[in-house]
Amino acid sequence: MRGCGMDFEGSRMLSTGQLLLAESLSIFDPASPDASSILNLAILTLAVTGLIFLVVEGVLFYSIWRFREKPGEKAVGEPPQVYGSMPIEVAWTAAPTMIVFFLVLVTTRTLWEVKPNLPVAKTGDNTLFVTVIGHQWWWEYVYETFDGRKLSFVTANELHIPASDEKVSRPTFLNLKSADVCHSYWVPRLAGKVDLIPGHTNVLSLETKETGLHLGQCAEYCGAQHANMLIRVIVHPPEEFERWLESESQPANEDPAVREGKEAFLAESCVNCHAIRGTSAVGTYAPDLTHLMVRETLAAGMIKNTPENLDQWVRDPQSIKPGCLMPAFGLDDRQFKLIVDYLQTLH
Ligand code: CUA
After folding, report:
1. Would you tell me how many other CB atoms lie within 10 Å of the CB of residue 233?
2. Cα angle at 324 between 317 and 346, to 5 degrees?
3. For the range 36-41, what are the long-range contacts, defined as Cβ-Cβ under 8 Å and sequence gap of 24 or more?
């Protein structure tokens, strides 16, 4: 379908993928109370069903071996057939019912444990509220309040949250919505999967003491680039998180050296979709670029945010993420360079 450029693209993406996978996505390495509850349930369920499997297979293989045909047995004919044994019928109805009932009970307990109890934001609550909007194929984060303070910025793809510590719990509540189709928010080390459904709001809570990067992935097929709808959650110590909030709240950096690039950006149709706070670009269809350079990755976690990748992304996004809704614009080299140089000043 696509030209020979594909091989190069493919190998480059593979190395990015391996790089990202080097960081843990495993449910067996929980970093939050919710993820631990889910892991405990998974292990218990696996143990119960594993035991049933062993018993059933054991009896099956024993019967095959024990009652195999012996020499001369054919002439005797079939052994006596047994129908309708009441004790056996009762036993093999009651036992599975009890096992299923037990699994229902432990599952309900876990659901109860991980169920977010959405509080009302108030001063001193140390709680972060963010609205997450799933788009084909990226995540929009609208920061609402922290510690009762109103926040008013929007960012994309990389969610920054504060860490809890021994003394203070700093939970994050996510209101999950969708702008188009169903998506699912899944950061295995922090929480279970919760769907983002058009016209409906779900709630997910995250809380962890482990600072650093936690990876996730859209977990509901949502179109061609579903696999490349990656989630990055960056957990900061409280002071560092405050500094991040402060910097994100600022309007875009003004650098007179890239005035021409800014004008080129604002003159193009970029502004129909993208917003840069403090400029006339107020599009809401695509990621807010106000602090673009703070992000470590581009294209929803697919590639590192390096000058070369940013340049290629702006020139020809389809070569990196085929089917994504950002078109390639027919600008000349000079204009591309001006725009990319401008974007690189958005710290
Ligand atoms: Cu979004 Cu899959």
Report:
1. 21
2. 55
3. 37/110, 37/113, 37/114, 38/110, 38/114, 38/191, 38/192, 40/110, 41/106, 41/107, 41/110
β-bridge partners, 338: none
> CA 278, CA 341: separation in Å to the nearest integer?
18
Q: Which amino acid is at 262?
A: K
Question: Is 18 a residue whose pLDDT tops 60?
Answer: no
Q: Which atom of ligand 1 is nearest to the CA of 220?
A: 2
134 lines ligand 1 (CB under 6 A): yes
Tokens standing for residue 174: 């996510």
Amino acid letter, 41: L
pLDDT at 22 over 70: no
241-265, pLDDT tens digit by residue? Answer: 999 999 999 998 888 888 898 998 9
Query: How far apart are the C-alpha atoms of 314 and 308, rounded to whole Å?
Result: 10
Strands 230-236 and 297-298: unpaired
Q: Does the pLDDT value for residue 4 go beyond 60?
A: no
Look at residue 288 and tell me whether its pLDDT is greater than 90.
Answer: yes
Q: Is the CB of 222 under 6 A from ligand 1?
A: yes
Residues 174-224: tens digit of each pLDDT: 999 999 999 999 999 999 999 999 999 999 999 999 999 999 999 999 999
> Region 96-125: what's the mean pLDDT?
93
Query: Does residue 23 have a pLDDT over 60?
Result: no
The residue with tokens 């012996």 is 70
Q: Give the other-Cβ count within 10 Å of 117's Cβ.
A: 8
220 lines ligand 1 (CB under 6 A): yes
Q: Which of 138, 144, 235 is nearest to 196 (CA)?
A: 138
6 alpha carbon – ligand 1 mean position (Å) = 23
- Determine the atom of ligand 1 nearest the C-alpha atom of 134: 1
User: What is the position in ligand 1's atom list of the atom closest to the CA of 227?
Assistant: 2
**Backbone phi, psi, residue 210, to 5°:** -85, 110
